[in-house]
Design a protein that fits this description.
Structural class: mainly alpha
Number of helices: 9
Length: 199
């Protein structure tokens, strides 16, 4: 459990996008170097020549800062994808990130695995700030597919698409000792996800 307690919310002065990106890059670099438990607001402040007061004005605490950094690295939000077909939407979802970035993201998420279970605040922040918005984007994608007549409204597989995609992303390195690159994920979509949805 982190010993750093959240500070009370203060008036938030908006950072420039460039400064925010610099802070997020530093957070991810420190996270890769030492892991979640050893990452501190002091370390981020020192690395970025920022004050801790500035960090706490922008983010309630370490969990929100880390999740903000993870969200910042996502190349596209699912809510922004609408190609006109479910196959096109799902392919766009897996093809936006380059393969090197996906390998780094998978390693980062595996590294966070223990921390997520051991830190309820991190788990909550991940769910509220990253997982729920993306899950809602996926649900909207599937609703549009139902409205277009591409998939049946009562297809039980629709409730498991997020699980299937995350499973493919996280387990290929374990099963095959290879990252889940875009080519693999497209094959997975065509062989597993789309047939399950009846497409």
């Amino acid at each position: 459990m982190s010993t750093e307690s959240p500070r009370p919310a203060a008036r938030r002065t908006r950072l420039t996008p460039e400064r925010e990106a610099e802070l997020y890059e530093a957070v991810l670099a420190i996270l890769r170097e030492v892991g979640y438990d050893a990452l501190t607001m002091d370390a981020v402040a020192t690395r970025t020549h920022a004050s801790k007061a500035t960090l706490y004005r922008q983010w309630k605490g370490k969990p929100e800062l880390v999740v903000g950094a993870l969200r910042h690295k996502k190349p596209i939000k699912l809510a922004d994808i609408d190609t006109g077909t479910l196959r096109g939407d799902l392919r766009a979802m897996v093809c936006e990130a380059d393969d090197e970035q996906m390998a780094q993201d998978a390693a980062l998420m595996r590294g966070l695995g223990h921390a997520i279970h051991a830190n309820p605040d991190l788990h909550r922040a991940l769910r509220e700030l990253l997982i729920e918005p993306e899950t809602e984007g996926l649900r909207a994608m599937l609703r549009r597919a139902v409205e277009r007549g591409e998939i049946a409204a009562d297809n039980p597989a629709t409730g498991f698409v997020a699980h299937m995609m995350l499973g493919a992303f996280m387990t290929r390195p374990l099963v095959e000792d290879r990252p889940a690159d875009a080519a693999y994920l497209v094959r997975y979509l065509d062989a597993v996800v789309l047939p399950a949805l009846g497409v």
